[in-house]
Batch of 3 targets.
Target 1
Amino acid sequence: MAAAGDRETAAGVVTLRRVPLQTRSRQRVQGVLDAAAELVDELGPDLVTTTMIASRSGVSVGWLYDYFVDREAIFDAIVIRAMDRLDAAVERSHKHHPGPWPVRISAVIDALAEFYRNEPGYRALWFSPYLSIEMVEAMRRHDDASAPTAVAGLADNGIVLSAVDPLIAFHLVIGIIDKGLDLAFRFDFDGDPAMIEETKRAVLAYVNPYVSPSHAAKAKPRKPRR
């Protein structure tokens, strides 16, 4: 259960000193995260200070500390918020690429790579010394929740995996994608294209043997769940 000063998100809990109850305060908190993420990308996290964040976001340093314990708490909140936005990126990919399942998986990996490139502050913090237990736990919670969603998505499109527990399979698929993108972006700011393509091949090579040919050939999208 979240403490009184915590805010629940899909990825986990963002710890705040105070919960912003008014719309204006909630918007200011989001503005602080936006400003901090911009500064992280511009300067690198080492050079970002709470004074800079407050100035960029148009709040006082005292107001900032009313909601965040320190600069690192702001960094944690940037990454945890990004986990929530990642789901929206994946959902948009599904809508824009409704074809056969290999095309859909490939498109999802492309969407995740684009997220690494464009989500403010995310990449710079994830590959920095400021990667915290809170950030890692948010990613783990997100991955754990994503596997059942992926299995349900396959079922909705008439795809059945045989000779393997689908949930186990997709926990592994998510792990492969996570590691592939980690390697692709760790040393290449834009993501090594060869590593991204190999990540796709690794996922398809793992899943393909478990997909029934009849299901793969005849699968038709079902009506969205309500």
Note: The mean pLDDT is 85.
Target 2
Amino acid sequence: MRKFALFNIFLTLFVITLGALTRLLDAGLGCPDWPVCYGQFIPQENQAASEFIHWQFDSVKAWMEMTHRYIASLLGLSIVIQAVLLWPRYLGAVRYLSIFLCLWVVMQGLFGMWTVTLRLWPPVVSAHLLGGAITLGAQFMIWRVLTSNREPKVFSVWSAFALVVFLQMGLGAWTSSQYAGLVCPDFPTCQGNWWVTIDAGVLQAPMVEGDEYLGGVLGMADKMAVQWLHRLGAIAVLFMFFYLAIQKNLQRRSLYFCLGFLSLQITLGILNAIWMLPLSLALLHNTVAMLLWLSALNGMTAKEIEFEREEPVEELLA
């Protein structure tokens, strides 16, 4: 069961990475319908030309989208099999997380459908991206409990750090769904500004028809505010890690994992800004964010360091 759970972790991470690649290649609407693609489970140009006259068929984007759907379906099946095997054998977090994953993977499928039918509406796209992180996190916790034989500490400083990282991933998902990743080509400033005004415009997501959300619909000022909010979130994660690091009873190895992924993630964020979001770095930025998320969850099952109390030394009198 440990090996099966570990396999599901890698499969989930692969699905998330493939989904990020699909989005970065603007293939999110490579198939304008769901669950089929241009009316077929195997995309064909002649079918697209005859029934989807308002869409231009792109074989690469269509197959990218369908490959993502097929492998995500395989993950869903694997999660169901895992729940069937775990339920009679384990109690506690493992049992409940396995059932939660079965329900959640259905929700993820709905988010995937709405991403297409609502034409990349940012709230749904962001929910779909965060849903992948929740799937990965729950699957990781199953494996971690199985290997450590310790229940996760839900209320701890580690869970607070994991929450801050999750919220930052949400800001990153919103930045991506609003196509605001390229509006600040400099660092630490944003188009030469040391501060960008943030208002209600960062939450705008009007419903549109067709594929107008390819490229985003917000104005430049609002996109700059979205990007700036994501940078402020990175600072919040950094300060939260410093607070985590000064705790005396936490396992150092877990902190080192977080430090490594956090340093790499910040470096990738800076390079993505000044190098104008190259595909390889943008994809790596998404993957490392997931690894940082897992390193935070890992701390919830890490064994705390116990300090022995020193006995008071009695003074010897002559």
Note: The CA atoms of residues 272 and 282 lie 7 Å apart.
Target 3
Amino acid sequence: MGFFLNKSDAATDQNLKEAYFTASQGQLIRARYKSNRTAMFAGWVLTLMILLGFFSEFLSPYEPTMAGRDKKYENGPPQIPKFWDENGVSFRPFIYGTKRERSLKTNFRWVISIDRQDRRYLHFFVEGWEYSYINLDWDLPGEAFDLDVKALTFSTHLFGVDKGGVHLFGTDKSGKDIYSRTLRAIMTSLKCGIMGVLIAFVLALVIGGISGYYGGWIDHILQMITDAIRTVPPLPLFMALAAFLPQEWSAEAVFFVISSILGLIGWPTLARRIRTHLLSERSQDYVLAAQLCGASSNHIIRRHLLPSFTSYIIVDLMITFPYMVRLETALSFIGLGLIDPVSSLGSMMQNVSKADVLLNYQWYFIPVIFFIVFVLAFVFVGDGLRDAADPYSQIKK
């Protein structure tokens, strides 16, 4: 019996070895990534946050704009649904009604008091304001760029209350729902980062690839351009941009310009790394063999040189993305990026810089927590993908 078990184990090991040596690069990267528990957890967190942002309209009971504000619940604390209290148990979650009145203790400032006798029950899949998952309502400069296309329009939301409002993360000074704005801000920052990364990635591949493969005078000219872009300080650039942007431009136009500028100034670092690698790899034997076989320069760069350092490209992309999000957040935080009524993580973090918020309205910091988790998830996923794409990562450890 032991002989058959050992023989079976040997056959299993042989099959595993054959599967390893016959696996594609994508399968090997996927297997190594799954063995990294930290990266897997960060990947699930990142996926959850992306889904929260994508389905923000469905998950939000109110429109996260000035039009959906609750004047009777300004600077209101978070309302946490309950299932029981001193009045008994309820199978349906509920919140308490509120009253807004002036108090002597706060020098006649408006304060919100809770009425524990007034239960307001949550309902699921309620009808509310309309939203579209395909909404190309762009009012860009020039009539040729104006778009107004809407598709997949719905009006169903996950939850709501029978009367009044429900604010899971509280409200700000104008009564806007922080929960709805936070979910919308995740998607806004995500779209801004994706657009910036795509522009930077394409420019880096083209410029870095041409510069590193051909060398010579082409390399000198392209590196002069790269160095010139690297010396441009982003903060003065956006300060000048904010001064010259027309005030009548829509939020979509400002978003498009901010994302484009982020991409146009974010490609030099990746382009430099691609150039350095191609300069060292273009003299290898496999490149010479491909040239002797009649392969074109585009084919050699695309099929032989770029795949040889996929891990570097992956980690640069995953690190560049949170950098783009942080830059957009920083610009919006100082008032040079996206501002109200656009909901972005940076524009929402503008309110936390005041001492009054730190002392009295701590729920304003909830978007800050989402921003930190969002950036850290990207960093850990990028680190895990880098180790998975690098075949020597386990040997180095």
Note: Residues 1-5 have pLDDT under 50 and may be disordered.
